[in-house]
Amino acid sequence: MLGCPILRAAVCAKGGKIDSSIAMPPGLKRYQQTQHFHFITFSCYRRQPFLETSTAKDITERILEETRTRQGLRIAAYVLMPEHVHLLTDEPVEDTLATFLQIFKQLTSRELKPSAEKQFWQKRYYDFNVTSKEKRVEKMRYIHRNPVRRGLVTRPEDYRWSSFNHYATGEVGTVEIEPEWTVQRRQRTDCLSS
User: Fold this and answer.
1) Where are the domains of the chain?
2) pLDDT grade, residue 155 (50/70/90)?
3) Nearest Cα to 178, choosing from 65, 56, 54?
C-alpha cells in the first residue's frame, strides 16, 4: 500500500491508477519567500520504485547534498522511500524551491534513469507551508516514521536514508541536516552582528 496519504488518495480516486492532476490540484497556490519551512513530497514516474536499491538511494542522497549546498538550502528532515521523497526544507537563497527541485531531479535522472524508461520523476510536487512549531514536529515525525509504516524497517533508526539518526544520535550523514535550534542560533548571531 502507498505510504503517503496524499498520494494514496490520488491513487484511490483513480481506481489504483496514478493521476498527477489529482495529486497536485490545478490552481494550487504556492507560497514562497515566506521564511517558512516547506514539507515537500515528490514521486518517481508512475510511482515506480526507482529508488528501491541501496545504490540508487546512496546516489540520490549524494546529489541531494550537492544540490542543497549549491542552492543554499537548509534541510531539517528528509527520507528517501523506494518510489518517493519527503523533505522538510527552507527555500534557496537565490532561487525558488521549484528551481531547486528541477536541478535535483535533472541530476538524479541523468545518473539513475533506466534507458528503457520515459522519465524518472513525476513533473509535479506537493508543497505544504509549515508555519508553526507543532506542524514542523508533526511533519518531521511523519517523515521519520514513513519507513516503519511501510514495513521497510521495524524502527526508524534502522533506516539509513533519512535524517532520523541525526536527531537520535547526532550522527553526521551524507545530507547536512540543520535542525530548528541551529537556524534560530544563526538568526540570533546574524542579528547581533548586524
Assistant:
1) 28-193
2) very high
3) 65
* Distance separating alpha carbons of residues 140 and 120, to the nearest angstrom: 26
Q: Beta partners for 108?
A: none
Which stretches within the chain are classed as H helix? Answer: 5-13, 20-23, 54-71, 97-112, 133-149, 164-169, 180-193
Q: Is the pLDDT of residue 48 over 60?
A: yes
Q: Tell me the per-residue pLDDT of 28-47, one tens digit each, with 9 for 90 and over.
A: 555 565 667 999 999 999 99
For the cut 80, the answer to whether the pLDDT of residue 67 exceeds it is yes
> Please, which residues have CB within 8 angstroms of residue 25's CB and are 6 or more apart in sequence?
none
Q: What is the CATH number of domain 28-193?
A: 3.30.70.1290
